[in-house]
Amino acid sequence: MKFAFNMPTKIISGRDVIISNYKIFSSLGKKAIIVTGRHSAEANGSLADVLSALKLAGVGYDIFNNIMSNPTIDIVYDGAKFAKEHGDDFVVAIGGGSPMDAAKAIALLAAQDISRESLFSGKYTDEILPMVFIPTTAGTGSEVTQYSILTNDELETKTTLSSPIMFPDYAFLDGKYMCSLGKNTTINTAIDALSHAIEGFLNKKANEMTAIYSEKAIRIISSLFKKIEENDLSLEDRDNLLFASTLAGIVISHTGTTAVHSMGYSLTYFKDIDHGRANGLLLGRYLEFLYDYIPDKVNEVLSFMNMNSVSEFKDKLDSLFGEKEKITKEEIVIFVGKALAAKNLQNSLIVPGNDDLIKILEDVFLGA
Questions:
Q1: Alpha-carbon gap, residue 362 to 368, rounded angstroms
Q2: Is 259 within 8 Å of 286 (Cβ atoms)?
Q3: pLDDT tens-digit map of 80-100
Q4: CA distance 98 to 185
Q5: pLDDT in tens, 209-265
Q6: Ranges of each domain in the chain
Q7: The pTM of the whole model exceeds 0.85
Q8: Protein fold of 183-365
Q9: DSSP SS3 for 120
């Protein structure tokens, strides 16, 4: 048994962990830049807890709350400039995948002068601002990955900035911040995490350790399908979803994602389909594609969900997501071209070619 496994982020989970661990903030610096979106962190109470903890720690702060869904290259350069101008020396990220992904890039760019042309090169020094991450959705797992996924208008897709130095120093997990999430957000984020776990399991880079984390995440999320669909999740359920999302994040920090994400990026960029929903719309049909080549591996995934067929899984996803968006054949050709150029496509256990990708997308969106 040969593999490598590393998780440099310290994960602290439990109720009110931000305030009870306030001393961590003072160990990281004298002034924080809080990176978040416009409203959710204030509405769910996470921002108030962070501010209380910073006050207890005697740490100053500035708030950069301009992060939009699918953050752009421009916004992370703006955030880095803001941090430099205000003398911020560490980063606190609050939110879902967008604020957390943006925060990693801001932490990097605030510590190093990196041109836009070199941003995705991976050629950086070791300098980066310390980071504390507080996820308020259970989906991306960004609190435990080295990835920052940004909207790249030049390439008309989403591009991944990645480096081992971009793992957050701390991740605080508390499901109470997710109790006010709407049904659609809960579905989209939960299936995003499920997609991470499944893609990480059916992956060339998977190993014995990541497989354990994948299986656990898949079992937790699938056990809550009925409650997710009925929007009837208890606080304990929210904690479990968050735990599963973090497990799945740990998985993809080692394996990366696969063809599902490669195809899904265009759905988000061109059609404004939420990232988790994009993955979910494709995931069942992707498993169907893989089943023709590696049925035993796909059946293993299905067994984790107590399902007997890919069709049963597809039906569950269709029930969760409802009516699909409209996409033309011409758009599909463009999206496949983008997917073929994505690096994560090659992580797939069976790498789909041009015709395979076209068939998957046509089956999903045209019913061909």
A1: 6
A2: yes
A3: 999 999 999 999 999 999 999
A4: 13
A5: 999 999 999 999 999 999 999 999 999 999 999 999 999 999 999 999 999 999 999
A6: 10-177, 183-365
A7: yes
A8: Dehydroquinate synthase-like, alpha domain (1.20.1090)
A9: coil
